[in-house]
Each structure stands twice: as structure tokens, then as C-alpha cells.
Amino acid sequence: MLCCPLLLLMSGHVFQPPAADAPDPKEKARQFLESASGMIAAAPPESQAPALFQLATVEKAANKVKAIEHLEQAFAAAAVLPSRKDNRLKEQTQALIVRELAINDLDLAIEKIASMDITPPDEIDPRAEAIEQIVAGLVREKKLDEASAVMDRFASTGAYSFGGARALLTAMSPDDDRRALLFGQVVSAFSRRPDIRPMELFVREFSPRRERPMPKSLFDTAIRAMVDAALDNKGIVEPSTLTITTDKATISLNDPQDSVLWRLIDLAVLVDQDLVRKAIRDRPSLTNLVELFPAGMTSMAKGDAVMTAGTLVGDGPNSREAQEKQQRLIVETARFQEVMKYYRKDPAKALEASRGIPTPVLRVRAITTVARNVDETEPAAAKATIEKCIAALEEMKPPETRASGWSGIAMAAGKIKDKELATRALLKGLDDIKAQYAADADPDNPNGAPRPMWPSSVSYRNLFYQAAKILGTETENFLEKVQDPEIQALARIEMAGAWLGVQQAQIPIRTLKKQK
């Protein structure tokens, strides 16, 4: 096939077919992990914690002892990260590391989480999810007493781990006397430090609709406590807005209290109608929504309504910025609903709907959703659809807005085993991510987050992971296109992970730039 080498030559890079003595991918992975370790050691201190975390998640497939060493180093390195009310990156990163440690060494995970700082009561406590992971690990080992001891130990300091309590209760037999005591502790913990979202998830797991519900009196107390907290504007740790689109109407809940109360309506119905009336009183938008869906999200699930959430922006729910964002959400909800309706049966119509999505990241997500869901049993039709997705991505300007989408396109091409098409997408991605990286590294206004958390770094990671899966060890030729040694280290880890069959580490994306 002559077109593939010609294509790559036109792109400025020629890939040679693998030699008969091509390197073993697993051996190459071990070499890359070793070299990445040395490169990370030379990186700035603030970059080392997330990079070491990424390294450990892959290293555990080759050497568990080394992986734990990397996690310990990452936890210590995270001490240099910011820790202030608007940016708890230190605590968030350390909690992420503890969650991974809990998979490898529960005792060490408990030791590390005990040394973490406690966030103020009005903030999210990152330790809660880490405690959940530890408790879940102890439950898997059938160490329920130890799991209970961990819950008791941390219950009085910082946020309560509702997820940990859920894992522990799920493991207990229905006649275990400790269940009632633990349910009571959960309700008391919420009253002491309200956090509605995790409490809601917990209560849903043990509602009267489930097989092993919590006592009805405690359930009612919990729901009343959550409604009262929302009405008092307490426990809404991450304010958001909601847009509900139906064939009859589009209703926007711009007030975060309305949004939280709406999520509780179907639970309040199980208590009594007086509680529902209390929740919606003097709240016109919420009242209109409940008139459409009297049982809240339970009755909404029976129809074709779509709910879209958005974080609160601006000075408040009535600010101009918040109103504009809400209008965008309304448009995006309708367009994304159309994409999801047609992406399998009529990809062209789905792509046309994606063009109307104003937010670039969601538009890219819609386009790559169409590409990734092509039918590999019909390669010709699938290739035609992927080509249309490429064209739809290329319509987006400037290039950094589409940079994150090329790994999804490459994945789709790999799905139909079309290396030529995949290589084309990968090379386009490398060009576009270069522009995204330039925006992150802008000398006049650089991204102040650790480099492994930059959007461009994550785009590079995703691209190299897909490249390694599709092209094997040939992907090493791509590395010369990346000049930044930190990004090269991250790329090497991703390539090693792909060759070892390890899932990618989920490192949060952060953009910390000065407001212009």
C-alpha cells in the first residue's frame, strides 16, 4: 500500500515498517518507565507529585514495590502545592495518591491520610473519597471491624465519608445490629457538617425503594434535614444551575438552592406532600417543574426529558454572566440531545447538530462521540464517518480548541484497524496540541498549575496512549516532535501503560491563569 508512506512523508515524518527484530513492547515499557523516573526527578518540585502518581499507576503492572515507592515520593512532593481556600491542590493531590495507595497498601494509605491537613467546614474535604477507598478495601478483605474503626477514627475530624459508610453498610448482613447504629451516625454527621450531594447519594442507596433500606424514621429525618439545609443555603458545597429540556418546555433553575431541592423532590415525595410543598414554596421555576414532574426525577425518567447541569458563574444566579451561561446551557442541552439521538443511526445528522454547540469542549466531545461509536463490522461506512468527523473538527478554530479531540478520532480509526487514518489523526493532533501547549506556556500569562495538569499535557498523554495502542513501538518516532522534557516523560509513561495494558491514570486538569 503506497499511500501511507506518502502521507507520512508529506506530514514531515516517515515511519519505517517494524524490523523483524522489533523490540518487545513489554521490555520497551520497562525501559521507558525507568527513563521517565529519571526525567521526573529533574522536573520542578511542583510537577513531581502528579507525574510520580501517573508513573506509579503504570509501574504497578511491572513492579508493585516500586509503584508504592513512587506513591510515597508523590505524597511528600505534594507538600509544595498550593493550599488556600480557592485552591486546595495540595490536599486534593494527596487524597488522590492515598486512593491509589489503598489499592496497593491499606496500612500505608491509613498512615498517610492521618497526616493530611483538615480543610475548613465550609469546604469540600478531599479526604472523604480517600477514606471511602480505604474502607472499601478493608471490606473487600472482609475486615469489617477494621473498616468500622477507620470510620470512627476520622468521623470526628473533617468531613464524614458517606461513601465509606455506604460501602460498610452494603457489606453488613441485614440483621447486623451495627447497621442501625451506623445509619444514626450518618444522620448525625450530616447535621454536624452538612454536605448534601454525598448524603443524597448515600440515602438513595438505602431508600425505601431498595432491598435493604434504612429504618423509615431515620430516612425521613435524613430527607427533612437535607431539605432544611438547602432552604438555609447550607451544605451546597458546589453551587450549580440546572436546565431541564422536554418536548413541552425548557425550564432553567438558575438558583443553586432550586437545583439542589429539585434533586431531592423524588425523595421528599416518599416522606410526605407537606415536605414537597415546603421545598417549592415561593420558588416559581421549581414549582413549574414539579407541576410537570410531580414525583421529581422519578417521573422525569419515564419521559424524554434531558437535564443538564452547569457550575455557577459570576457574582450570583442573577448576574449577567450566569444568565448568559444558562442560555448557552439551554442551546447545548438541545443540541447534545440531538447528537445522542442520531449518533448511531444517522451520524451525518448528529454531526450537523454538533455544529450548533457553542462551547468548544462540548462540541469536541460530541464529534468524538460520533467517531468512537462507528460500527467496526462495516469498515467502509465507519471510515466515511470518521473522515466527516475529521472535517468537523478541522472546522473549529483556533487549533487549540480541537486539540483534545484527535485522540478520540485516532481511537476510532484504531477500532476499524485503519493505521493510515489513525496516523493522520495522530499527526494532526500533535500539530494542534502544540498550539494548545503554547497557550499554557504563554510567557505573559502562563498556566500556574503543575505542568502534568495542563490541558495540553493531558491532550499529549491521551494522544500518546492511543498511538502506542495502535502503532506499537513505532510510536517512539513521535517523541522527537515533543521538545519539553516533562511532557516527554509523561508521554513515555502513557506509551508504557498502553503496552502493559494498564488504564490511564485520571489526573485532574487545572488552568490557573490571571484574569485579563
Tally of individual helices: 24
Contiguous low-pLDDT stretches (5 residues minimum) are 1-19
- Strand neighbour order, sheet with most strands: 2-1-3
- Beta-strand level of the residues, as a percent range? under 5%
Write the element-wise H/E pattern from the N-terminal end onward: HHHHHHHHHHHHEEHHHHEHHHHHHHH
Question: What is the C-alpha radius of gyration, as a whole number of Å?
Answer: 25 Å
Q: Could you give the distance between the termini? A: 51 Å
How would you sum up the global shape?
globular
The helicity comes to 55-70%
Name the structural class: mainly alpha
Q: How would you sum up the major sheet?
A: 3 strands, antiparallel
Question: What do the pLDDT scores average to?
Answer: 89
- Per DSSP E runs of 2 or more residues, the count of β-strands stands at 3
* Domain unit count: 2
